[in-house]
């Protein structure tokens, strides 16, 4: 009998049907992988299992009984634990305190520190972590923190462990270690739900693959059917070459040239980079490799610690985005709700925000220009909205992202930096964004896009830069691109060979 | 805009209720006072609205008033500066203090609440030090700036309500007399009343009108205003769009303190003497309350100038009404209660609108999904 069953679950958010009639089941000790593109509904499904969100329809069964999971505490009681991609640990506490946060052993309200340490040591041993329970969390590497998080789940008797992108910021050695831990946990009867973008690692961990596409089940693969091609077909619904409208571009002159740019904060290695007119360059790397930081530094929103950037031969200051914007260098940020859009303003107001000053005389609002620009962009990018006066919050993710692109398209880009341009949007909108990148490249715009999706990087770029721990570890031409080649560079395994 | 209508309705409601039960309320002199005080308080409210729109706050307005008032008096009395020069100096000083606030908040990333709370204490202290502990006077020769009667407006029905047999308590059947637009003279004879009366107007309404019009144009018709609202709602996104967010925030604080400076000068002249330890106490709260009543969200990004003016008027009328009822002890309780009710009503209205919109959205999505495209 399955340990956990998800039966016909649906969930709607304003503007988007996140899940539609989704089902899956797991036996004790089994490990399944849930795959899908960004926005396919994986996170929503996991959040429902973990009690962060409640389904609109459908039910969840444990040992054949329907259970109500309305809060994280409910989920914990049912033995379900979610390990977030961004770990939910407190830096200022030690390891034992983190493991027992919220369920500390106590008597008469007093903390029973000794028992807490003893039990923490037990679960730490189960995950193969050889550290004292009193170690401060801040001193641990990301890989070890992840194991602490798993230990935390075990401490609350979790029967089902949901891991959301557990390897996205781990080195190769740490990934292998994690797989070993997963293996021992499964032998002890713990079920694993594994979510990852890295298709190459899935056959190491999963007995079965469940694919989601646009919020629906799109198919399952049993152990011996799991191949890269099969998984991709289930995820995107067609073959890759059809999905990515890529044709090779003839690159023109160098439009963006960055020399010795140092990113502030992190390990500040000087980075060199050149982009030619009309080429699409991918920027790959693990989470935390410094891709976002590099793009933000080039754009000027993040102060640089040195170096120079030239756009079309003209040097720009790296102090505020205003210089970059004046030179035609634009960034489409990773977090569109936080950085890309003023979410409570209208579609029109958002699209015209960067260009207002340029279009205005004497600071008066250029209302006619606003209207014509907004209308033109809505039409050109096929933004689905009742009109430019709609509050942008109520648009779907894909249409919001198109609006962010529209902001900069209206300004005439020379160089476009895109940070995870297709995160959290549906397949249709994704395809349209790829097509637009193509069109822009043909018009001579230089494009640099950072992405965590291997398919996207491989499918869309003329060449790919791979970052590893704040450096550009290497460059791959289109012919050399493969998931393995990128991962070798991204995990630092091959940096010496190519640079 | 809808919200302004709601607040206008509340204002009219309070006026009508007060007029019915306390006819003294509509005496031309009283109305003139309310208009004058609304104008003075409104200047402060408009200033603080700019800061609130950026998502900030200014808690130091009352102390700023005291400092401006004290300095204004001292400059004229002790240093014999001509009034115009003294006014210029205090306005420049208050504007520069806004610059300091803005720099601390944007460049050092200090929280507006903390910076202006310190301002509240520091400026009050400076005011008392400036005046040397005693009250400052000598504003009488400028009283024409406040009290000159430059005109008057006819307001219909005032005499009927005020003196005639038109007010509510005279409608009670036991009186046996017909209500109507007449009064009884000493001999008990009916005398007819004019159907309108003249309410005198003083300069402050002109100051408020000028400032409000400029502020409204700034906020609604210029790129500056759009940028200000955008950064109030999402500073990051505004910055990523090339808006000079720091500069805008600094300018907002300068506008706020400059308006507090103007209000300080006007209030000193109006009251005639400045007691530095109490002058302007709690005025920042009146200004903030007026802005909030008028539709500014303390989360930033929202606000309308006409709303602030209406909000100020509500507070002034309410205060006057409380005096008429002789329940001054309850003043703060009533004012607080009305603000709370206003804010709750607004929040409920907002939720209903959001719900309605969500269901419309759902219907739209269904339609899109149903169509084969």
Automatic annotation (TrEMBL), chain A:
SMART domains: AAA. Residues 4-239, 249-494 form the ABC transporter domain. One of its GO terms (molecular function) is ATP hydrolysis activity. GO terms for cellular component: plasma membrane. It is a peripheral membrane protein. InterPro entries: AAA+_ATPase, ABC_carbohydrate_import_ATPase, ABC_transporter-like_ATP-bd, ABC_transporter-like_CS, P-loop_NTPase. Pfam families: ABC_tran. SUPFAM superfamilies: P-loop containing nucleoside triphosphate hydrolases. Keywords: ATP-binding, Cell membrane, Membrane, Nucleotide-binding, Repeat, Sugar transport, Translocase, Transport. It comes from the Bacteria. Its main location: membrane. It is found in: Cell membrane. Transmembrane segments: none annotated. This is Putative ATP-binding protein of ribose ABC transport system.
């Amino acid at each position: 009998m399955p340990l956990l069953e998800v039966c016909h679950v649906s969930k709607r958010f304003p503007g988007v049907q996140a899940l539609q009639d989704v089902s899956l089941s797991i036996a004790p000790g089994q490990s399944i992988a849930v795959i899908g593109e960004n926005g396919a509904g994986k996170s929503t499904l996991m959040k429902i299992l973990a009690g962060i969100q409640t389904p609109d329809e459908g039910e969840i069964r444990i040992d054949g009984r329907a259970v109500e999971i309305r809060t994280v505490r409910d989920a914990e009681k049912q033995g379900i634990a979610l390990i977030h991609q961004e770990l939910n640990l407190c830096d200022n506490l030690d390891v034992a305190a983190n493991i027992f946060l919220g369920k500390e052993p106590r008597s008469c309200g007093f903390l029973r520190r000794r028992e807490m340490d003893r039990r923490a040591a037990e679960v730490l041993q189960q995950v193969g972590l050889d550290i004292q329970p009193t170690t401060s969390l801040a001193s641990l590497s990301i890989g070890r923190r992840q194991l602490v998080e798993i230990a935390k789940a075990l401490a609350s008797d979790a029967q089902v462990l949901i891991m959301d992108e557990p390897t996205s910021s781990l080195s190769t050695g740490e990934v292998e270690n994690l797989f070993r831990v997963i293996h021992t946990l499964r032998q002890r009867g713990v079920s694993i739900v594994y979510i990852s973008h890295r298709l190459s690692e899935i056959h190491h961990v999963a007995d079965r693959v469940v694919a989601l596409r646009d919020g629906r089940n799109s198919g399952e693969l049993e152990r011996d059917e799991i191949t890269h091609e099969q998984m991709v077909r289930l995820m995107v619904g067609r073959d890759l070459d059809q999905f990515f409208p890529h044709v090779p571009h003839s690159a023109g002159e160098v439009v963006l040239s960055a020399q010795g740019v140092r990113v502030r904060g992190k390990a500040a290695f000087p980075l060199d980079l050149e982009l030619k007119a009309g080429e699409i360059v991918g920027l790959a790397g693990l989470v935390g490799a410094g891709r976002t930081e590099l793009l933000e530094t080039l754009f000027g929103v993040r102060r640089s610690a040195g170096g120079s950037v030239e756009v079309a031969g003209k040097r720009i200051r790296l102090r505020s985005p205003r210089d970059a914007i004046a030179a035609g260098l634009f960034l489409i940020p990773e977090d569109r709700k936080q950085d890309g859009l003023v979410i409570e303003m209208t579609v029109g107001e958002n699209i015209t925000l960067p260009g207002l000053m340029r279009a205005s005389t004497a600071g008066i609002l250029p209302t006619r220009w606003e209207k014509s620009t907004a209308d033109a962009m809505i039409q050109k990018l096929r933004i689905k909205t009742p009109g430019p006066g709609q509050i942008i919050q109520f648009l779907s993710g894909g249409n919001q992202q198109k609006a962010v692109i529209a902001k900069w398209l209206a300004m005439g880009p020379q160089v476009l930096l895109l940070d995870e341009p297709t995160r959290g949007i549906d397949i249709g909108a994704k395809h349209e964004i790829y097509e637009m990148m193509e069109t822009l490249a043909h018009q001579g715009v230089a494009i640099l896009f950072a992405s965590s999706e291997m398919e996207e990087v491989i499918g869309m770029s003329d060449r790919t830069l791979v970052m590893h721990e704040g450096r550009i570890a290497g460059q791959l031409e289109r012919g050399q691109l493969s998931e393995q080649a990128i991962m070798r560079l991204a995990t630092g395994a091959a940096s010496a060979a190519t640079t | 805009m809808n919200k302004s209508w709601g607040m206008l309705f509340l204002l009219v409601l309070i006026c009508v209720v007060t007029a019915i039960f306390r006819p003294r309320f509509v005496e031309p002199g009283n109305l003139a006072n309310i208009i004058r005080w609304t104008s003075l308080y409104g200047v402060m409210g408009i200033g603080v609205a700019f800061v609130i729109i950026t998502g900030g706050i200014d808690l130091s307005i009352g102390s700023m008033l005291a400092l401006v008032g004290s300095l204004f008096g001292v400059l004229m009395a002790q240093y014999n500066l001509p009034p115009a020069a003294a006014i210029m100096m205090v306005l420049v000083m208050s504007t520069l203090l806004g610059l300091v606030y803005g720099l601390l908040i944007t460049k050092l990333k200090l929280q507006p609440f903390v910076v202006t709370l310190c301002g509240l204490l520091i400026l009050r202290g400076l005011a008392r030090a400036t005046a040397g502990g005693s009250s400052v006077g000598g504003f009488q020769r400028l009283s024409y700036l406040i009290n000159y009667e430059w005109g008057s407006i006819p307001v219909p029905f005032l005499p009927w309500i005020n003196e005639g047999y038109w007010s509510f308590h005279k409608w009670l059947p036991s009186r046996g007399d017909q209500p109507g637009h007449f009064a009884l003279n000493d001999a008990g004879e009916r005398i007819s009343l004019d159907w309108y009366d003249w309410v005198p107007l003083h300069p402050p309404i002109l100051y408020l009108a000028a400032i409000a019009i400029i502020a409204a144009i700034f906020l609604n018709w210029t790129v500056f205003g759009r940028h200000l609202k955008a950064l109030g709602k999402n500073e990051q996104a505004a910055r990523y769009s090339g808006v000079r967010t720091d500069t805008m925030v600094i300018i907002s604080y300068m506008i706020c303190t400059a308006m507090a400076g103007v209000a300080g000068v006007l209030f000193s002249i109006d009251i005639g003497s400045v007691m530095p330890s109490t002058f302007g106490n709690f005025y920042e709260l009146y200004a903030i309350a007026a802005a909030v009543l008028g539709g500014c969200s303390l989360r930033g990004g929202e606000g309308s100038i006409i709303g602030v003016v209406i909000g100020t008027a509500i507070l002034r009328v309410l205060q006057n009404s409380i005096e008429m009822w002789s329940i001054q002890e309850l003043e703060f309780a009533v004012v607080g209660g009305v603000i709370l009710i206003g804010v709750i009503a607004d929040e409920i209205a907002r939720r209903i609108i959001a719900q309605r919109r969500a269901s419309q959205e759902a219907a739209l999505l269904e339609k899109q999904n149903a169509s084969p495209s």
